[in-house]
Amino acid sequence: MIKDISDLTLKLKSMLSSQHSVYLKGSVADYIPALATVPPQLMGVSVATIDGHIVSSGDDQVPFSIQSISKIFGLVMAMNRMGDSLWQRVRMEPSGQPFNSIIQLEWEKGIPRNPVINAGALLVADVLASHYSSSKLAFLSFMRQLANDESIQIDQNVYQSELAHGNRNAALAYLMKSFGNIEAEIPDVLSHYFTQCSITMNCQQLAQSLLFLANKGIDPRNNKVICTRQDSHRINAILSTSGMYDQSGEFAFSVGLPAKSGVGGGIVAIIPNYGVICAWSPPLNKFGNSVVGMNLISGIANELGLSIY
Ligand code: GLU
Question: What is the pLDDT of residues 167-218, one digit of tens each?
Fold first, then answer.
C-alpha cells in the first residue's frame, strides 16, 4: 500500500515521462468527431486518498470529456431512486461484446447485460429521464456536488457531435423500447445520455468525485452518504467485471481493481479503503481503453501491490 506520499509523487512523474511516445500506439476516438480534435499528446494522472491527500502529475488539471465514466454516476443516481427494482430491467453480467453492440440485446429481449455497456447506460438514462423533472440538471448538479466545483460544464460541441452521430445509440434505445423496457420518449433518453457523456472534468476532480466508492458509499471529505454501503460494493463488483469494455477480464487479471474507462481517454480505478486513481490520455487501443492510461494504472497498481484479489 502507499505509505509515503512524496515518494508517490516522484513515481507518478517518472511513470508519465516513460509514456511520452507510447501514446502514438493508440488512436483518438473519431466516431464522435468532436473527440478527434483533442491533442493526443496530453496525459495526466491523479491519485486521491480517503484521508485527504491528492497526488498528481502531467496534464492533471486539463478538463476532458468523461464519456462512459459518467455511467458510474448515472448508475448511483438510478440505484438511489429505484432500489432493487432496477435489477429487473438491467442485469449485472459481463457482456463479452463490444460496448455498443446490439446483437445480444435482441437475443435477450431488450434487457441489457449490465449498466456500463451503452444499452445498460441508456436504460439508466431512461430511469433518470423518467424520474426527474430535469434529469440533465440533476445530473450536472450531482457532479458539481461530488467534485465540489460549480464550474463543471457540459461541452456543447461534444454534445452536438454525439447527437449528430448517435444512430447506434438511438438503435439500442428503440430496440429496448420495442421490448417495453424504456418508458420515456427516445429523444429525451438520448439527450440525457449524451449530456452526461459530454461533461468535462479533469483527473483531480474525477479521482476526488469517486472517493465514496473507496469508502463504502460515504464521501470522506464531508461524511455525506452518496449511496448505501451495499450499493458501493455492488458498483465496484460491476466495474470489476465489466468496467473496461471487452478487456475487463485482462484488466482484472493484470491490475485487479474496479475500474471504468471512457472513449475520451480517461480511466478511473477504485482502491477500496484507500482512494481512487484517475489517468487520462486520449489515444485508445482496439478495445476503446486509453493506451497510456492502462499503462499508468497498471504501473501504479503493480508497483504498490494494489490488486484486490
Ligand atoms: N458517448 C459514447 C457513446 O455512446 C460513450 C462511449 C464510451 O465512452 O464508452 O458511444
Answer: 999 999 999 999 999 999 999 999 999 999 999 999 999 999 999 999 999 9
Residue 68 is a catalytic residue: yes
Cβ 283 vs Cβ 291: under 8 Å: yes
Residue 235: name the closest of 75, 90, 105 by CA.
75
132 is catalytic: no
Reported confidence tier of residue 23, pLDDT bands at 50, 70, 90? very high
H/E run at residue 145:
helix 135-147
Around Cβ 287, how many Cβ atoms within 10 Å?
Answer: 16
Distance CA 225, CA 53 (A): 20
Ligand 1: centre distance to CA 295 (Å): 21
Nearest atom in ligand 1 to the alpha carbon of residue 67 is 8
Domains in the chain with CATH codes = 5-65+200-304 (3.40.710.10), 68-197 (3.40.710.10)
Are 279 and 45 in contact by the 8 Å Cβ rule? The answer is yes
* CA–centroid distance, residue 68 to ligand 1 (Å): 5
pTM here is: 0.97
**Best residue for ligand 1 mutational test, from 99, 116, 163, 193 (most atoms within 8 Å of Cβ):** 99
**For residue 286, what pLDDT band results from cuts at 50, 70 and 90?**
very high
Tell me the CA–centroid distance for residue 268 and ligand 1, in Å: 15
Asked if 198 and 155 touch (Cβ cutoff 8 Å), the reply is: yes
Q: How far is CA 215 from CA 92, 95, 151, 211, 224, in A?
A: 22, 27, 25, 6, 11
CB 262 within 8 A of CB 70: yes
| Cβ–Cβ < 8 Å for 280, 266 | yes
Cell numbers standing for residue 2: 502507499
One-letter identity of residue 191: S
